[in-house]
User: Fold this.
Amino acid sequence: MPGEKQKLTILLAAPRGFCAGVDRAIQIVERAIHKFGAPVYVRHEIVHNTHVVSRLEKLGAVFVDELDEVPGDRPVVFSAHGVPKSVPQAAREREMIYVDATCPLVSKVHIEAQRHHKAGFEIVLIGHAGHPEVVGTLGQLPDGAITLIETVEDVAGFKPRDPEKIAFVTQTTLSVDDTAEIVEALRTRFPSVAAPHKEDICYATTNRQDAVKAMAESCDMVWVIGSETSSNSKRLVEVAERAGARNAALIEDASAIDWSAMENATTIGITAGASAPESLVEGVISAIGERYDISVEELRVTHEDVIFKLPRLVA
Ligand code: SF4
Assistant:
C-alpha cells in the first residue's frame, strides 16, 4: 500500500549506556553546583559525552583543560577518567576545594600500579596514548616507571630493565579481545609477567561488548550512540563489526543517523556507550519509528547493580 512503512526490527542491547562511574561523576558535578553555587569548574570533560557536558554547562559547570585556568576561590571537580598525582597536589598547594570524580575502578588500576612499583616491578600499561585515563595512570608514578603498550607489535619492541620483574595494568575501556591478544603476547615473551588481581577492563565495558557481540550477527546495521571522544563507545563499533554486523557506526544522537546506511535493512541493533544518556537512545528509536514500522526487542546478556558511593564532600 502506498505510504505504508517498511517493517524493521530493532534489537536493543542491554546493558547499554550509563555505568556506575559515569553516573557518580555526573552526580558529583550536580551536587557540587548545588552545594557551592555556580560556577563549579571541571577539569576535562567530566565524562566523554557532548550532551552530558552541555547539560552540565547550563547548570553552571565550566569545563577547562588545566587546573591553572581555575580561579583559586572556586571549587574544581576532576573527571571520571582520573588525573595524574600532580593535579590534586597542585590543588592542595593552592588551597583549593576539589572533588575527585575519578571512577573507583580507575583508582583501583592506579593502586595496582603503585603496589607493583613499590614491589620493584616495571609497569606496562596497555592502553591508548593520549587518552585522559592513560595520562592519569601514567601520572601516578615517576616518569619512566610505566611503559605504555598499545599493540602486539609494541610488545615485541619492549625492552624491559629486567624481564623477570614486569607487571601489567590496563586502561578500563579497551576491547576485551584486543587486550587478550596483547596480554597473550606479553605472557609469551615474559612468562613471569604479573597480572592484575582482577581484570582491569571494567564490568561496564565488558558487559556492553558482550551485549553487542550477542546481537551483531543478526544486524544489518548497528548504531552505537556515543561521542567521538568516548573510548568505550568506539570499541563497541569495532566489536559489532568483528562479531558479524554487516555495518556499524558511532552516532552522537538521532540527528546523526545516516538513513542511506539502513536501506534494505530488516534488523538493526542499537547500543550506547557508558557515557551516553538513555534519552539519546529513546531519541534514536523514535526517529527511526517515524520512518519505519518498528518492533523493539531488548537483548539482555546480564543485569548490573553496581553503585559507587559519592565522595564525602558532596554526599
Ligand atoms: Fe568506571 Fe568503567 Fe564506567 Fe569507566 S566505563 S567510568 S571504569 S565503570
